[in-house]
Design brief:
The complex is a heterodimer of chains A (344) and B (350). Chain A is mainly alpha-helical and 344 residues long. In chain A, 74% of the residues lie in helices and 3% in strands. Chain A has a two-stranded antiparallel ribbon with strand order 1-2. The longest helix of chain A is centred in the last third of the chain and has 35 residues. Chain B has two domains: 250 residues, ABC transporter involved in vitamin B12 uptake, BtuC (Orthogonal Bundle); 49 residues. Chain B has 14 helices and two strands, in the order αααααααββααααααα. Chain B has a two-stranded antiparallel sheet with strand order 1-2. Chain B is globular. At the A-B interface, helix 6, helix 12 and helix 14 of A face helix 6, helix 12 and helix 14 of B.
């Protein structure tokens, strides 16, 4: 038992529990919904998860530093719409240029957030509450109530959502899903192995200690917000590819799903703990729930928001109650297992 | 600019403090308000008439009622993001019950009770379980709105009895309708409680330093719980008044109101980290936002763009004091250094 405890840190236990819950949920919905285990459901759920996961990765970076970003939905909506509009007007823009444009614009929007939070010393909830409204206002003004539809977009954009990386029998792994997975893996590696990633944890865990230790906290928080914005830009492009139909209210309300995904995935709202893989698991659960609720006839789909709020509360509450106790138990058992050096 | 909790021990301090106040943040707000009103008056001739101003208040009466209680909560060092969703839930409860045939008076009371229950839940999570108010009210914002959608799905509920629809509109005392009278009563009550009562002092102290308050014997948990319960109740009342004014309810009623409400309070000089601010500043900032929104409508800006402008105001109203404080700190540091330099010079020369 003590050997097991050495292998499984409380955070990893939490992630395993989450995987277990996801499997249970999938099995449950399988019994309730007809034709649940088909390729089509898998595609719908996985592409929905992909977009949430991309944004959740960026949100994780911000939350790790003890900040929050609720303007993500507006950034996703704006970048998706803006790039879409450019593609409608100039059909010959290269795909790579379009993606880079989306990422770039998202990064600039994240930069504004970051400057106000890191250098203006304004609380991140207030900044992003404000930019949520500002970016949405800019989008509405820019769009002029025009809708982007599939027949005005270049063909490759529409094809993008049905391109597969690999097909195993009925299950198609879409390119968008693979992209999201690649993003998640990349950022998980970055957080674990790069000094920048470790510094994010340090700042979230104890901002004063980080400052006194000489970390360039302001610059790191700024970069976190810029990366979050860039990932939102990428997600905006994915949103455009997936739906090929955008209005000025594109992606409105997505920040709730993303926050739920991040919190459920084990990223502490107090900062300093959590992983991108956890956020991916959280996004999986949220995506699974959202897509399955639409098809489940017992409960109306309008329960979605209420469930999200409940999940966030349960996750934070559960973390506060259980994780702290688990950590103390684990730390105590670690001390007991360490060889007694003090007697020498 | 150092903002300390205003504490008139009697009427005398009001006069002494008046000049200080004028030179500070509230003076700035007054200046901005005058400019906006002048610009608006140039656009529309009868702008400053009683009827126009009453109408103006009418349009935002629900938001400004909630701004009063939000002032208490922000001074206390907490935040309540769920107020707009509680408005929506109370209104949706009213609509749903009315749809099911419940008499509207009962539905009204139940709506208020629902709001209080939401406030109770928020307060319990924040005060007794110790979760941060940001997360709890964010979850509440999402969850209560979700419950409103569950109740009404995507229907509109309208056709309320005559007296209900004119609840907010009917002139009651002079030209002022019921809703406006409620606001004035609540305003006076809020000023009395915040500036002149023990409870108000507790609110300030807890906001300043929760630990100091606790060690001084203040019942921190009870104060916080009380504040959030009142917040839920007031939000429900505002939601019901809004339903009466609109004449029809749907699940998305009052979506996004929390931005305006929080901006009204923060721009009024209330510090987000608690412990400072007064209702006079909030009153001025309410007037500014009301007149600004009206002015933006006069030049035909859409709702979303107007909301964007409010977002800019929110950020500026917190950024400006921060920057001012930083600049002043830098200037002070330079002055100190200069002073230290001249002192050491004086010491060196015999």
């Amino acid at each position: 038992m003590s050997a097991l405890r050495r292998y499984f840190r409380p955070e990893q236990v939490r992630e395993l529990v989450l995987v277990f819950l996801i499997i249970v949920l999938a099995l449950f919905f399988g019994t309730q919904i007809r034709d649940y285990y088909t390729g089509r459901t898998f595609i719908r759920i996985s592409t929905s998860i992909a977009i949430i996961a991309a944004v959740a990765t960026g949100e994780t970076l911000v939350v790790l530093t003890r900040n929050i970003d609720i303007s993500v939905a507006s950034i996703v909506g704006f970048t998706g719409y803006f790039v879409g509009m450019q593609l409608v007007r100039h059909n010959d823009i290269a795909p790579l240029v379009a993606v880079l444009m989306a990422i770039g614009i998202g990064a600039v929007m994240g930069l504004l957030n970051g400057i106000l939070v890191a250098y203006g010393k304004v609380s991140s909830i207030l900044v992003t509450l404000g930019t949520l409204a500002i970016y949405r206002g800019i989008l509405v003004n820019y769009s002029g109530a025009k809708t982007i539809t599939a027949n005005s977009l270049p063909q490759w954009v529409i094809d993008l959502s049905s391109m597969n990386i690999v097909s195993i029998g009925e299950l198609d792994f879409r390119l968008l899903v693979g992209l999201a997975l690649a993003v998640v893996v990349f950022f998980q590696l970055m957080l674990t192995y790069l000094p920048f990633g470790r510094r994010l944890y340090a700042i979230g865990c104890n901002p004063n200690a980080a400052r006194v230790a000489g970390l360039p906290s302001q610059r790191i928080v700024l970069v976190a917000f810029v990366l979050c914005g860039a990932l939102c830009g990428l997600a905006g492009f994915m949103y455009l590819a997936r739906f090929s139909y955008l209005t000025a209210v594109a992606a409105q309300g997505m920040e709730m799903s993303v926050l739920a995904a991040v919190v459920v995935g084990g990223v502490s709202i107090f900062g300093g703990s959590g992983t991108v893989i956890g956020a991916l698991l959280g996004a999986t659960m949220i995506g699974l729930l959202e897509q399955s609720l639409i098809r489940w006839l017992v409960i109306s789909e309008f329960w979605r928001s209420a469930l999200l709020g409940l999940l966030i509360l349960l996750a934070v509450e559960g973390d506060a109650a259980i994780m702290n106790r688990l950590r103390k138990l684990w730390a105590r058992s670690e001390l007991q297992m360490a060889p007694k050096q003090e007697n020498k | 600019m150092a903002r300390s909790a205003t504490s008139p021990a009697g009427g005398r301090n009001l006069l002494l403090g008046a000049w200080e106040r004028l030179k500070s943040w509230e003076g700035l707000l007054l200046g901005v308000l005058v400019v906006i009103v002048i610009i608006n008056s140039l656009q529309a001739p009868a702008y400053l008439s009683i009827r126009n101003q009453t109408n103006l208040f009418q349009l935002f009466i629900e938001k400004i009622i909630i701004a009063l209680i939000m002032t208490f909560i922000l001074i206390n060092g907490e935040i309540d993001l769920s107020v707009a969703s509680v408005m929506g839930l109370a209104a949706s409860t009213l609509g749903r019950l009315y749809e099911l045939g419940v008499p509207i008076e009962a539905a009204f009371l139940i709506g208020l009770a629902v709001g209080m229950a939401c406030g109770l839940l928020n307060g319990f999570m924040i005060a007794y379980t110790g979760l941060p108010s940001l997360v709890v009210t964010l979850a509440g914002m999402i969850g209560y709105r979700g419950l409103a959608y569950v109740l009404l799905e995507d229907r509109f509920i309208g056709n309320y009895p005559e007296w209900f629809s004119r609840l907010g509109q009917q002139p009651l005392i002079g030209p002022f309708p019921l809703a406006l009278v409620i606001f004035f009563v609540l305003l006076v009550g809020a000023i009395i409680v915040l500036q002149y009562s023990a409870f108000g002092r507790y609110v300030y102290v807890i906001g300043n330093s929760r630990e100091v308050a606790r060690y001084s014997g203040v019942k921190v948990r009870r104060v916080k719980m009380a504040l959030f319960i009142v917040s839920g109740l007031v939000a429900a009342l505002a939601g019901l008044l809004y339903a009466a004014r609109l004449g029809s309810v749907r699940g998305s009623v009052a979506e996004g109101f929390e931005l305006d409400i929080i901006t009204m309070v923060l721009m009024g000089g209330v510090n987000m980290y608690g412990g400072a601010g007064s209702l006079y500043g909030v009153l001025l900032s309410i007037l500014i936002i009301l007149n600004l929104r009206n002015g933006m409508s006069l030049i035909n800006l859409t709702g979303h763009v107007q909301t964007g402008v409010i977002g800019v105001l929110l950020i500026l109203s917190v950024l400006a004091p921060n920057l001012a404080r930083n600049i002043q700190a830098t200037l002070n540091r330079r002055r100190m250094r200069h002073l230290a330099g001249t002192l050491s010079e004086a010491q060196e020369s015999p």
